[in-house]
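Encode chain A's predicted structure.
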Amino acid sequence: MSKLKELFMGIDEGEDHFDENAVEVYADSVRQALEMAGQELGVDITMLDYQILEKGNAGFFGMGRRPYRVLISPHPVLKQHEDLGEIEMKLSREHIPSVSPEQKKNADSEYKIRMTKSGLFVTVTPPRGTGRKANIDEVNNKLYSMRITNHDASRLAKELAKPSGKPVKIGQWLPNPDFDSSMRVEISEDEMKAFIHFIPPRYAGRHMELDDIIEALKNAGVVYGINNEKITEYLDRMEYSEPMLAAQGIRTRNGRDAYIDYKVRIENTRMSFEEDESGKVDFRNLELLENVVVGQLLAVKVPAEEGVQGRTVTDRILPAKPGKDFKMQYGKGTILSEDGTELTAEINGQVVFKAGRISVEPVYLVNGDVSLETGNIVFLGSVIVQGSVQDNFIVKAAGNIEIKGTVQKAFLEAEGDIIVRQGIMGRDEAKIESTGGSIYAKFIQSANVVAEGDVRVPEGIMHSHVDAGKGIYCNGRRARIVGGVIRAGDEVNARYLGADVSTKTEIRVGINPKILQQITDLETLKNGIDEELSQLLLNLRTLESQKKSGVKLSPDREKMYQDLSSQNEKLTKRQSEVNLELEELKSYIDMLEHKGKVCAEKTAFAGVEVHIKDKKFGLKDPYNSVKFSLEGGEIRISEYELPVISEGQQRITTVVRRR
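Encoded structure for chain A:
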């Protein structure tokens, strides 16, 4: 033990000797100076000794700032005994590596030595299980390493013999500014956090205490959000490797806007196709229509919140924005409460959600087929047909149309969704159109179908013309799209595309079919104008040549000449207008992003033509589990993607269960 004591005493003897490797450093703090010197000398800062030649000053808002001037060199004894730190750690047992729960049951006694303004304190924790008590020689060696020789040895021995786990005073504090701990306060730019950076004490230097921290924070302008409990915990650990978060402000929380809590379904987001083991789809439980009764609660307005103001650690108040309020809108067939927060149904009927407001439309129920007994149906609400729609009959509705049977060679039009539970057999003359919703049918055969949203068919689309503003999905077990023209704004996704007999099937995506139809109509109109103008010009030139040759035209032929000239002027103007509209539409198409895809889960057969925007790809061979998309101006082939869910107010979720 005498050799170890001599080693520590040797440290004391050489503390004021700085060798030729000493460097003089200017820095904002002693710690910063030590870090800079450590980098320059290539040693750890724990192996450096220093002498403050001139103390620094932070100044006032940067004015009058004066840096520290510090003389730093490697400690001569530490250079000779580089393993001293390791020896000290083993002696103190203050830093014990993490142990397993089983090891914690049998833990050795631990101790901490802490110098404060109140004196020198030792805290000894009793051992657990078969753990051993702290050895007095180890503690004395630690005290020697800290250059402490005037402690109460008897009081220390008593505490080691019977540890209390609490701080016990064993000596007086002798001020030593060169060895005492120091600190600086750092406030974040937004003034929401205040950190304290410590330079730990050396040897018998004093540790900082709570009142030191509070005073330093107040001097730095930190007066709010100071966490005394966490500061005390941090100081008790005596580990200064990381800055301490000493104070934290409250961030502003703006008020939530008022919103409407709908008590009824306003979108068809829970519709699903479900197949049984044989692959059949049950259309009986779709429940797409939201029916309500008189007095039923439809929606509740949740008021806006005021918000919570923030506060910085410097006690600066940060005002909060209150949430936005609005007046609850309501449609026909509903009643708004006097305070404007509750909406109830005034009549029995169907919920219709348009332009951000709920209306209740009455539902027209047909107990059977739409036939000679009912005549055509035009209704300002929703229509439910318990049977089928026979040939050449019309059903129009301002809401939804639900047909529980089939649709023959008929005409259906609705502003909402159209549901045909048993499929469409159109014989090339049926037209089914939803101007604001989606269309669902068990199958579609030889029909014209148009939907603003999606078209979803679980069993098959055969030899039909189908347009959808969003997507066309045909994903049942036997589902396939064969023949006809299929056009969708976003996506066509089917289990099979085409047939193994190379049936021509045209599929177009990437452009809203309405725009394509406008272009088709304009081109048809342009061709008609061009043909009419060509014939008119031929007649007009004949009359003009007669006039130029000196032949006087009869009154009837003169009138014909004037009429042809006027008509030529009008047709030429109209021709220019049509050409301009075509150019604008084509320019708009060119500006559209490269989206749109065609997917076949199983097989896309030869005979299928894929058009994405203005690019075409004709399949000459079958492709399995494939996706066609537009990349870099060309159609690319990649792996199949599952059907996507369309977003927005008309979003429809389709779930196909396969077993």
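The first strand starts at residue 23 and ends at 27.
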